[in-house]
Amino acid sequence: MNATTPLHGDDTAAILDKARSGIRISPDEALILALSAPLHDLCAAAMDVRLARHGKDAYYVHNVHINFTNVCVNACRFCAFSKTKGAPGARTLSVDEIVAELAGRGEARIREIHVVGGLNPELGLEYYVAMLRGIAKQCPKAGIKAFTAVEVAHLADVRGVSEFEILATLKDAGLMMLPGGGAEVFSPALRQKLCPEKISGERWLQIHATAHGMGLPTNATMLFGHIENWSDRVAHLSALRDLQDLTAGFTCFIPLAYQPGNNVLGARGPDGLTVLRVMALSRLFLDNIPHLKAYWVMLGIKTAQMALWAGADDFDGTIIEERIGHDAGADSPKGLTLADLRHAIEAAGMIPVERTPDFQPIR
Ligand code: V47
Ligand code: SF4
After folding, report:
1. Cα(220) to centroid of ligand 2, in Å?
2. Is 324 in the pocket of ligand 1 (CB under 6 A)?
3. Which residue intervals define the domain Radical SAM core in the entry (predicted)?
4. What domains are defined for the chain?
5. Is 143 a pocket residue for ligand 1 (Cβ < 6 Å)?
6. Which residue, by CA, sits nearest to atom 4 of ligand 2?
7. Is the beta carbon of 219 within 6 A of some atom in ligand 1?
8. How far lies 213's CA from each of 202, 218, 245, in Å?
């Protein structure tokens, strides 16, 4: 069957029943659902799968984001965060400044430090190691989720060593897991238009496979709502599911809603319905990745609450203070208090469960 052939409701209902009962759906079936399933039916099936796995639990984490440099040699067309060296607004923090940023922020209770930055060739591996050690000392209870596969590749290339070697050094210095950034959309044709200087999707997947092989869990993302279509999205999810079958190292999938401000891509960003369809389809298709994040920074609080009814089981965290989405015009708050987070989850009819970066519940 061609995915663009008009379908009877019975066809999509049969695929949804299959997914609901725990039978894996194929990429073709996912595409049929994406294009033809009524929104309510898609979300209801995703909700059933979510309830079977997680009940009404919705995870959140007491976390902090650190963007240690916005200087980047890449110029991804969707990115409003990166600056060239010496440009107005370019900033790079020293290790002491990073540690000072954490001081006085209730560091005894922080559970996750999320650290990502641009590709700044002036920062050597020693800087990254010192940063990890400094953060670990300042926030002993927190797990450090740091450096995207794109940054790992950059460090390996600058130093002329393998990615395994970079990851081993970082792990030894206290790295707990990798965040999911840099995946964007794997289609090579789209990457050429979106982020031509960035590593290929294949290399992104290979670095995550290497991390998984070393016992470092990772997250995965997909940037959506720009110039990609449903076939591109399903192909992306499919590549993640295939790797996960081999390694079981992905913890959480995060669909990142494209923010259209202050960047040269000139796309619009996804509407609310597309957000819910992407969430629901991700929940139904990614049967082997345990968690699905409603990232309130890019979705806004209200849409993130709705996403909890479309399959998502994680709300991310307090964050203070996010830059990548906000530089691109995100109109969500820059951070939330723990009370705000719990309130948002409870108001959505779910049960807030505090977690560690690797989703161990803190009861
Ligand atoms: O890789 C850049 C994206 C990512 C824009 O692993 C944009 O827990 C939307 O990956 N609109 C970094 N997105 C953020 C990220 C992330 C965030 C929160 C949690 C986790 C996790 C990972 O931000 C980049 C890129 O895909 N990005 N510009 C933009 N205009
Ligand atoms: Fe650099 Fe990352 Fe922005 Fe691309 S998305 S320009 S790699 S900071």
Report:
1. 16
2. yes
3. 58-292
4. 56-362 (3.20.20.70)
5. no
6. 76
7. yes
8. 16, 11, 13
DSSP per-residue letters across 65-102 = EE--B-B-S---TT-SS-B-TTSTT--B--HHHHHHHH
* Dihedral over Cα of 84, 90, 96, 98: its sign: negative
Binding residues for [4Fe-4S] cluster: 72, 76, 79
- Our answer on whether the CB atom of 263 is closer than 6 Å to any ligand 1 atom is yes
Sheet holding 143-146, edge to edge: 63-66, 112-115, 143-146, 175-177
**Ligand 2 atom index nearest CA of 78:** 5
Rounded Cα–Cα distance for residues 25 and 160 (Å): 42
pTM, two decimals, is 0.97
Continuous segment of H or E residues that includes residue 156: helix 149-159
Cα distance between residue 71 and residue 74, in whole Å:
9
Is residue 254 within 8 Å of 295, Cβ to Cβ?
Answer: yes
Report how far residue 245's alpha carbon sits from residue 33's, in angstroms, rounded to the nearest whole number.
22
- Among all ligands shown, which has an atom nearest to the Cα of 254? 1
- Strands of the sheet containing 291-292, edge to edge, are 218-224, 250-257, 291-292
